[in-house]
Specification:
By secondary structure, the chain is an alpha/beta fold. It contains 8 helices and 5 strands, in the order βαβαααβαβααβα. The protein has a single domain, classed as Rossmann fold (3-Layer(aba) Sandwich). It binds BIS(adenosine)-5'-tetraphosphate.
Length: 187
């Protein structure tokens, strides 16, 4: 299965990906993790990513898409993958669509985890990553509204978008995701 998880910062994409990738037997590809790894290695990409992440902004589309494009061409992605946090805007989605079309495939499911800013803020402040400060979070929420929300419409039009409410325990959110996967795979 080729699956994308979308949701605002702190919605639980990374948290849910941990069991979901195992459950689907596909690799978990998190652009956030890939970028933080590049930051840790101090590569040119890492330096650029560090600046953007610390300001709550998106890393340039082509750079992130190249990173993902290279990864999904590896043999372990042949039967599917779980994309966590990518695409984050329509431009990235179009670039991904082109890449998939070249290998005559497409996305099976885009799963949106919905959650309000109040709960998101509490969760992120508790997590306390360096980009989880009130000021950076505010910018990340704005970027989500302006860049990522239009992506939902893009995938709704393609008929692959399903949404769940994320304001529940981790286990309950997992159950909701299971329900969608079961419904999609039994179609
Ligand atoms: P990401 O790494 O994608 O991180 P995120 O959106 O903040 O978090 P996520 O939704 O995965 O939350 P999590 O499960 O950890 O992005 C970071 C930055 O990287 C971006 O701002 C951007 O700069 C850059 N970037 C990434 N992808 C990009 C792209 N495609 N293009 C450009 N730039 C890109 O959950 C958060 C917390 O909540 C955790 O502490 C967790 O334990 C807790 N939690 C989760 N579920 C819970 C539940 N049900 N109940 C209670 N707590 C819960």
């Amino acid at each position: 299965m080729r699956l994308v998880l979308v949701g605002p910062p702190g919605a639980g994409k990374g948290t849910q990906s941990e069991w979901l990738a195992d459950f689907l037997s596909v690799p978990h590809l998190s652009t956030g993790d890939m970028l933080r790894e590049a930051v840790g290695e101090g590569t040119a990409l890492g330096k650029m990513a560090d600046e953007k992440i610390s300001q709550g902004q998106l890393v340039p589309d082509q750079l992130v898409t190249d990173l993902v494009g290279e990864r999904i061409q590896k043999p372990d992605c042949e039967s599917g993958f779980l994309l966590d946090g990518f695409p984050r805007n329509v431009q990235q989605a179009q670039l991904l669509g082109q890449l998939l079309a070249e290998s005559k495939t497409s996305l099976d499911l885009v799963l949106e985890i919905k959650l309000g800013e109040k709960v998101l803020t509490q969760r992120l402040l508790q997590r306390g990553r360096s980009d989880d400060t009130v000021e950076v979070m505010r910018e990340r929420f704005t970027v989500y509204e302006t860049e990522t929300v239009p992506l939902l419409e893009f995938y709704r039009d393609q008929g692959v978008l399903h949404s769940i409410e994320g304001d529940a325990t981790r286990e309950e959110v997992s159950q909701r995701i299971r329900g969608i996967i079961d419904a999609v795979t039994s179609d």
